[in-house]
Design brief:
With 152 residues, the chain is of the alpha+beta class. The protein has three helices and five strands. Strands 3-2-1-4-5 form a five-stranded antiparallel sheet. A hairpin with a 2-residue loop joins strand 4 and strand 5. The radius of gyration is 22 Å and the shape is elongated. About 8% of the residues have low confidence.
């Protein structure tokens, strides 16, 4: 039984590893703004920075791979082994995919020059600390924090 579980988990790990991507979800690169897009930039100061985990986009790939693998491995067990293997495999595969898509993030609390306070959560691609002068860049209801001119 332990060999079957070990083989099952090994196969799932390899299959899920092929489904993951190291491509960044966001980019701090400067680009061009096309006509009719409004980008708002406000100046502010970092008050607090907290490390957080950001759940990436998930699909049903982990659950599907787990179900198929579990069904195949469970088919060697009499009666409802294939069905039970599929259910257990789907649950394990879904959880494995969730764990594989988590990314390090930051929850950044800012005080803007106008006195407003805002909190932005973004990928931890750039380091920030309390007291940093930053820019809050907002476009299409999406905000990100970038270092100001004097913090490069």
């Amino acid at each position: 039984m332990y060999k079957i579980i070990s083989v099952y988990l090994g196969i799932n790990f390899l299959l899920l590893a092929g489904c993951t991507s190291n491509a960044p979800v966001t980019s701090n690169k400067v680009g061009t703004v096309t006509k009719e897009q409004v980008v708002t930039v406000k100046q502010g100061t970092v008050i607090v920075v907290k490390d957080v985990l950001i759940q990436g986009k998930t699909s049903n790939a982990g659950r599907t791979v787990g179900s198929v693998t579990g069904s195949i491995l469970g088919s060697s067990v009499p009666y409802a082994g294939s069905i039970l293997g599929s259910l257990i495999g789907g649950a394990v595969g879904g959880e494995a995919e969730k764990a594989a898509t988590k990314k390090a993030g930051l929850e950044i609390t800012l005080e803007l020059e106008d006195g407003d306070k805002v909190v932005v959560t973004q990928l931890a691609e750039t380091k920030f600390k309390a007291g940093d002068k930053v820019q809050l860049i907002m476009k299409n209801n999406v905000a990100r924090v970038a270092h100001g001119q004097d913090n490069s």
